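Predict the 3D structure for this chain.
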Amino acid sequence: MAERNASSLAVIARKSLFFLFIVTSTLFIFSWFFVLRSTSMPRFIDHKLLPNSKLNGVIDSGSSGGSENQKDVEPSIGNRAILVDNEEEEKPSSFSQEKEASQANNGVKCNTNEKVVLLKVFMYDLPPEFHFGLLNWKPESSSVWPDLQTKIPAYPGALNLQHSIEYWLTLDLLASELPNPPNARTAIRVRNASEADIIFIPFFSSLSYNRFSKINPHEKKSKNKVLQDKLVKFVTAQKEWKMSGGRDHLIVAHHPNSLLDARMKLWPATFILSDFGRYPPNLANVEKDVIAPYKHVIKSYVNDSSTFDSRPTLLYFQGAIYRKDVRILSPLANGGFVRQELFYLLQGEKDVHFTFGSVKKDGVNKASQGMHTSKFCLNIAGDTPSSNRLFDAIASHCVPVIISDEIELPYEDVLDYSEFCIFVRTRDALKKNFLVNLTRNIGRDEWTRMWKRLQEVQKFYDFQFPSKEGDAVQMIWQAVARRVPAIRMKLHKSRRFSHSISREGKGVSRIPSPSNFW
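Done. Predicted structure below.
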C-alpha cells in the first residue's frame, strides 16, 4: 500500500513539473516577443513630423522592396550631390528644391523637370565696358545689356573661344528673363539680392586678358589692369559685398592669367577656373571653387560610326612641344619637360602621331581629322595642369590619356572619369615603351566601352546658346549650386559674434586672412 502511494505521488510530481515547465517556457517566449517589439521602429510615430522625413520615407520604401516609387527619388548625375546635401541636412534655400529625375543605366542622362529651378542668381548691372563692350557692342538705350531677341554680340573665334565661359553663363542668365525663356534652366536671374543663392560678377576676364593685357604707347597701365582696378572698386563698394565680405559672390577667371591683380582682393568669392596651377591654395582650392571645362575648339564628331579597327592611329598628340619655363610660371605644371621627353621617346613608333601644331594654317581641321582617326589622344600638362586638348579629345570620341598629376577635372564629384579616360602618372609615362605597351594592351572590347561612354558624356562639355539640358552651361550652374551649402555655412559662422562686434563699434563684416578663411 505504501509503495502504491509513493508511485502515485511521483506521477503527480512529474506532471506538476511538466506543467510548470510549460508555463515558464510560455512566459519566457512572450517576454522576448514584447522585448523585441519594443526595440523595433515604433509604428505609431508620424514620420512627417520628424526632421528629414523624406529620407525616412525613402529608406522605408527601399526596405519594403517596393519599386514603384524608386524612380521618384533616384537622382540623376546632374543633381545627385544636391540631393545628398538635402538628405544630410535640410536647408531652406531655393537651390535645394527637388528635381523629378530619372537616371538611365549609364548614370549620365539628366531627364529633369524643366520647370523646376535649382539656383537663383543676382547679377550686377556692370557697365558694358566690363562685358559685351569688350566685344565692341554699344548700348542703344539706357540698358547695359544687349537685346537677345534682336542680335547677340559674337565672341571672337580661334583660341579665344576656349576660355569664353563667362560669356555663355551671362547669356544664360539674361535669357532666363526673356518672355519665352529656354526650357533648360538650372539658374535664373533674380532682381533682389536677398532672394539669391549666389551673386554673379559678369566680368569677361579672359577676353580682357587676351585682348587688352598689353600696354599701349603712352600708357602706364594696360586696359586689362585698369578694368580690374575699376572692377574691384565697384564690387567692394556694393552693399551686397559688404554684407557678406564677398563670400556669396561668383566670378569667372578661366584663363590662367586672367584677373591676376583683382584676384588678390576678390579672393573671398567663389572662382570658376580651368585649374589651380597659378593660384596658391589659400586663394583657390577644390573645396571653395569650381572647375569648368574649356570650350573645345575641335569640331564635334557627329554621327560617329567609327570602330576600333577604323581608327588606325594608336596615340595622337599635336600641339606645342617646347613650352615656357613652367617651373617659374606654375609649380604644379611640368608639361614642358614631359612633352619634350615623350616626343623623343615616341619617335619612330609607326602608329603614333606626335608632332608640333597650332591653330594656324588650317591647324584646327587637321587636328580634327587626326583625333577622329585615333584610338587614344594624349593630354599632357602644359604651362598649367590643364589644357583644352582633353575636351577636344572628348568631342572627338578619342579616349584621352591624361598625363598631369595635379589636374582637377570638371564635375568630378558627380562624374567618374576613369570610365572614359586613361590616367598615367608622369613618372610612369616617362619610362621607355610604357605608354605604347599600355595602350596596345587595351583590347577592342575595353576601348569600345570607353568610346561609347565618351559619346554619352560629350554633351556635358558643349557650350551653346540657347543652352540645352545637360550641356556645359547647365552642368556648371549645377556645380555652383553644390557649393552653396558650404558658402552659407561659412557665411553664417562669420556672423556668430556680429552683435557683440557691432556694439564695440567695429562693424559687422570682418574678413579674415586667406590662410584661415577656408
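Confidence is low (pLDDT under 50) at residues 38-106, 109-115, 325-333.
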